[in-house]
Design goal:
Length: 369
């Protein structure tokens, strides 16, 4: 195992709309396994495709290039194109063909911009659209059965166009009463309650998901003796439950952003990175403090080889499935954008379609993170 292998366990954000010399030097040095793109990285269609091309060009191993392109307010690409309808809008329209078409269009859109992994579908359940837990508009139904049916349609459509999927947010934000971007939620549910509701969409869709994202929620039944450990750092939640009980042993598991308040307010950085990998995650996500990727690399490089060997195997197994970008041209971009707009109109109607979601971070930092 070389030091380059260690970097594969890191999924990192970058600071701007192009690769500056310091960031490029860091990437060449640690060779991260993947990159996540945010609004701060998006300026125009040409610029975005050049950025993803540049990230691939300085990566020795094909990287995951990922984004949150769900629909509605959590659609980074609406900055340079039409806004897709969100998951709850599609669910309430109750037209399976529209949901599957949303998946296919999303796949086409991401491929032309150079992405290969989308951080969705959301598998949480919409129990209260006014809850302060970051989920408003992002769930594919108001029951586990609805989410299973609708998220599966989206997932199948998107994967058919060559984009890998990521089910989130295991074990669930459904009953969270606060936003993990700001503080650590505690969800007081019994294991039986969780298995019957929040767990159901994951159990049903795991065989068809390319990866799973683990969230920063504390479920006391996973770790009854530790009141502060989030699922993202919990061996019982990830290794014993997700991998063992639910059978996702060979699947790729990624932490949610480790720059969130739920983590930063509770743990030191070195402890966080070590615990994340020892808990059973394959990749640690560092979205905003780019310079911390070097620190993460140093920490990981000191961990015993046995701690990361299985993760490397799962990462490379997932990367075999990566599809290359499609040819970029303005006409194709415009054609796909028209498909997004037409889907929005069919889902919402002409008048509502004209009203874009606000994106100011006041509801949840997920809008701008």
């Amino acid at each position: 195992m070389s030091s380059f292998d260690v970097g594969q366990l890191i999924l990192m954000g970058i600071p701007g709309t192009e690769l500056d010399s310091d960031t490029a030097s860091l990437i060449k040095s640690i060779q991260p396994g993947g990159f996540i793109i945010f609004g701060r990285n998006i300026e125009s269609p040409d610029q975005l495709r050049k950025l993803t091309d540049d990230l691939r060009s300085i990566s020795i191993t094909e990287p995951f290039i990922t984004i949150d392109q769900e629909g509605g307010r959590v659609s980074r690409l609406r900055l340079i194109g039409a806004e897709p309808p969100n998951a709850i809008q599609l669910s309430r329209k109750n037209d399976p063909k529209l949901i599957k078409r949303h998946g296919k269009i999303t796949g086409q859109l991401l491929r032309i911009y150079g992405f290969n992994l989308n951080l969705c579908p959301v598998l949480d359940i919409s129990l209260d659209e006014d809850a302060d837990n970051s989920l408003r508009g992002r769930c594919y139904g108001e029951s586990a059965d609805q989410v299973i049916t609708n998220a599966a349609l989206f997932n199948k459509g998107m994967k058919s166009k060559g984009i890998l999927s990521c089910g989130k947010h295991f074990p669930g934000y459904t009953y969270a009463s606060c936003d993990a971007h700001e503080e650590l939620p505690t969800v007081n549910r019994s294991r039986d309650q969780w298995e019957s509701i929040e767990c159901a969409p994951f159990r049903a869709l795991l065989p068809d998901l390319d990866s799973v994202m683990v969230c920063h929620t504390h479920y006391p039944f996973f770790d009854p003796d530790n009141k502060k450990v989030p699922a993202s750092l919990s061996y019982n939640a990830i290794t014993n439950t997700l991998r063992g009980q639910l059978g996702y042993d060979n699947g790729l598991v990624i932490t949610d952003d480790l720059d969130m308040g739920a983590i930063l307010n509770e743990f030191g950085f070195e402890e966080t990175i070590q615990r994340a990998i020892l808990a059973g995650n394959d990749m640690v996500m560092i979205c905003h403090r780019t310079e911390m990727a070097q620190n993460a690399f140093t920490i990981l490089d000191k961990m015993p080889q046995i701690s990361i060997t299985d993760s490397l195997e799962r990462i490379y197994r997932a990367k075999i499935k990566i599809s290359p970008p499609t040819e970029f041209n303005q006409q194709s971009v415009q054609e796909i954008d028209e498909k997004v707009w037409n889907l929005r109109v069919e889902t919402l109607g002409e008048e509502l379609a004209k009203e874009k979601s606000l994106e100011d971070g006041k509801r949840s930092p997920v809008e701008t993170y």
